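Deviations from the work plan: none for this task. Representative record:
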Amino acid sequence: MTVADVLLLALGAVAVGSGAAVVTSTHLVRSGLYLVISLGAVAGLYLVLGAELLAWVQVLVYVGAVVVLLLFAVMLTRAPIGPSRDLDRPAWPALIVGGGVGLGLAVLLADAFRWTLYDRSDPGTTERMGAQIFGQWVLPFEVLSILLLAALVGAIVLSRPDIGARKGDES
Amino acid sequence: MHAVIPYVTGALLFGLGVYGVLRRRNAILVLMAVELMLNAVNLIFVTADAAVRASLVGVQVEAWAYPNGRPAHSGGVFALFVIVLAAAEVGVGLAIVLQYFRMRRAVHVDEIALQHDNEEQVSR
């Protein structure tokens, strides 16, 4: 057990614990805030694993943008302030499938990588990651930018009911 | 570092995400659970990038396998791509959810009518 192992264990426990709170909390807003904790812990895991740029992008994009967008949607759909009773469906199918997937994957990975030890290699700094993205992976990067543009246009068209509406069609 | 710790963390997070997607009725909570699943996949990408490369030290690789030089940090690059995909997904998904809320005043995913003409049958 090194310091990195202890850090990984602690951050992993925080991530899994607050992830469980995300999927079980009865408060909508609290669930979003637990998601912040879980994503932040995963960003810490990235830092320990040596992916620096990824950790900061995680904090910027996930915690900064995605969760704020989700909380905006929670507010815009008039979520109640207190606990909501009607958030969940029956638990058994979800418990069986989710628990089966999670525990099965955990057992599989633990069995496969039980004794794998590794030293942290050179950290993924912005310079190295940028060289990889714009060298090796430049075509997926461009495709991804087209996809982002398509998603942007799609979100605008979806949220403006007057675009593409036929005459006499009240939507 | 033990590679098994982040692997198991990622597996458990993915299981929690599957549980949340199947359990929750509110569409925004379903999207949150999807984010958990994408994060688990990212975590496994990053771990596999470091751990697999560490276990390949000393292995002679043919030259034609890497025409542009040995790739490094591929797992991190893929995780970045997945983060971008997640941002796009959440944007479009929330646009759909808000539009649905504007039409029906509800965001319960198990009450959404899949067919247009017989909406009375599926209301529960």
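Residues 52-76 of chain A form the longest helix (25 residues).
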